[in-house]
Amino acid sequence: MYGNSAGPPPTRGAATVITLRVLYAAAGFLTCGLLACVPLFRVAVLRGRWYDWTAAWASLPLSIACLAVVGSLPETDHRTDAAMAGLLLIGAAAAAYFLVIDIRVHVAPRPLVGTPPPHAHFAGPHYGPGHPVGPYPPPAPVQHPVAPPPQHHPAPARIDQVRAELDELSDYLRHHDGRDGGHQGGR
User: Fold this and answer.
1) 68 to each of 33, 34, 79, how far by Cα in Å?
2) What pTM was computed for the model?
3) Nearest in space to 39 (alpha carbons), one of 136, 129, 105, 122
4) What's the CA gap between 20 and 45, in Å, rounded?
5) What is the dihedral of CA 41, 104, 117, 110, to 10 degrees?
6) Would you say the C-alpha torsion 133, 138, 139, 141 has a positive or negative sign?
7) CA 146, 152, 158: angle at the middle one, nearest 5?
8) What are the start-end ranges of the H helices in 37-187?
9) What is the DSSP letter of 111?
10) How far is the C-alpha of 24 from the C-alpha of 39, rounded, in Å?
11) Residues above pLDDT 90, as percent of the chain
């Protein structure tokens, strides 16, 4: 009803990918570590590994605690400087980690679904590409009935009817021109 929805998802252009990388990386550092969790959550969503999620969730209370120290102590206290340095380090580390992982994810070729990675070793027989590996033999190929080649059909009845009418018209015109004594119809 609304077009083909089974197509591949739209791809992002290079400018969009670079802009998003800059925004995610800048979110942690330019906000003095307050939003350091943003690039870490992006990495966690991209990869889905437990330690990425742990790092993203751990960065939240750590940056809040450092901000609490900066806000509650006077500027002349050395703990304020240490907490601010910690905030900036958290932001810089989150940005660097995000950039490394995001570039790796977008550059790495994606494996085809159902094929083992190239470094995987399997015990048992190898049937070649496209066949499943396991204790069961490969499935027999499916036999599809072969359709006979199309036969040359005679022209449809409508074409024969048009030909007959054109022949009658030609005969009529020849006969009509013959009665007029050679008159060529105003040429």
Assistant:
1) 12, 11, 11
2) 0.51
3) 105
4) 15
5) 80
6) positive
7) 130
8) 37-47, 50-72, 78-107, 157-179
9) P
10) 5
11) 29
